[in-house]
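Entry 12.
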Amino acid sequence: MKGWYVCGNPSDRAGDTTSWYATFWAFVSGYLGKRFGKRYCLNPEASLLLHTGNTTVARQVTCVTIESGTSKVELPLGTSLLVYAAPKNVPPSREEVRGLQVWPLSEALCMTGPQFFVNNPREAEIALAMVRNASELLTTLLAGDTMVTAAARLAGAFEFVKRHDDADRIIKAFAQLKVTLKPVNPFLMPQPSLEPSRERSPYVLRLRSMWAGWRQDIIAAFPPALGLQGTVDDYLTQVEERYVSDAYNSLSIEGYRVTDDLIERVARGEWDPDGDPGHNKTRDALAARGYFQAFRAVKNSIAKVLGGEPASAVVGREHHDWYGELFGPSVAAGIVERGQLAGYRRGPIFIRNSMHTPVPREAILDSLEALWDLLRDEPQACVRAVLGHHMFVFIHPYFDGNGRIGRFLMNTLLASGGYPWTVVRVSRRDAYMKALEAASVAGDIVPLAQFIAQEMVEWSPERQTSASQA
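Predicted 3D structure (tokens):
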């Protein structure tokens, strides 16, 4: 193969990574399928990453083939594909995930080395949770004399995640062969992030693991919640005072060109798309009108939260209403299809210049239900706000508007702890996007927690009072 084409958007700037990251796995699948048919398999580690719903573009993918020689295919943006022939390392029965030939989950767990548990503890823990019973592993573990070390490692891993019956099952199976297993815990983390459950969705398990692993970092980065200071009306007045700045910054972050004058005219009801043909098809003006309507709906939701309703129930129930208000004007003008207001996206979507790919369409409902449950069970408002925002954007349930709805979600959840409405400034857009990427790709929530805490201080009542006096 001399080369290939990847379709891109003519409006993409030089160095834009979206086209490649969006097509990475499709390209790898097409390349390997064209070259080897189904006579290949990703190595056990890469297989586990796909089984466990890891949505990050890999720097290097390792593929084992039944035939052909060793080669390293250099791909764009520092990614690569390592291919080598090792017929004995290609399992006779393979599964297909995302169009790629991979090891079955249970066999991949048996064949992967101890370093995977160190480098990818979240994926290792999710993979164990997806195994319903240790018997799924024993067929592979008992197949040869070379699997004793792997059996000890998996027995230790099951003990670590509090599945003692499964650990005992492996130990007793080897004892029947006169082999004494001493379990070895391959994890370096102090405790598991997942409780034993019947959940098998890798996407739901990932959200639960992220929540448990990150909440203490967020609490450490945030000032304590003081609760509502003053009356509900006082708080809602402060929210209303943020409207112009919030609309300008939130819409600008998403690439809309709006002015304070346009935003204020929309708020005063002086913009009439029906009476002004010049604005009838104006994308930015329609977005501003939608934002105004959605902001009012969010303000009503906050009033319910401050009135005593559980924040998780309010956002889970009413985020659809916010979305409808956000895009209602564009639908009325014929710019957005009416069907888009019906519910969540019905296909794949990609985030510009991100190595993270949102969850597939079929996982959206399960993932959102898990998010509402996590919000309901979380006692700390700062954790609800940061992770509610991040995980909503991580799931990316809509074709458009996920960032705006995610920031509305964040502010409604901040209100549940008495924190002020917080504007994410467009002047700090790069830092904001890098913080989201660090959480989604590198597994580090601290930059996002610190970023939101810093922006929140900018919009605290005390800071605003001193700024107005100055």
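Annotation: Strands lie at 40-42, 60-65, 71-74, 80-85, 95-97, 100-102. The first strand starts at residue 40 and ends at 42.
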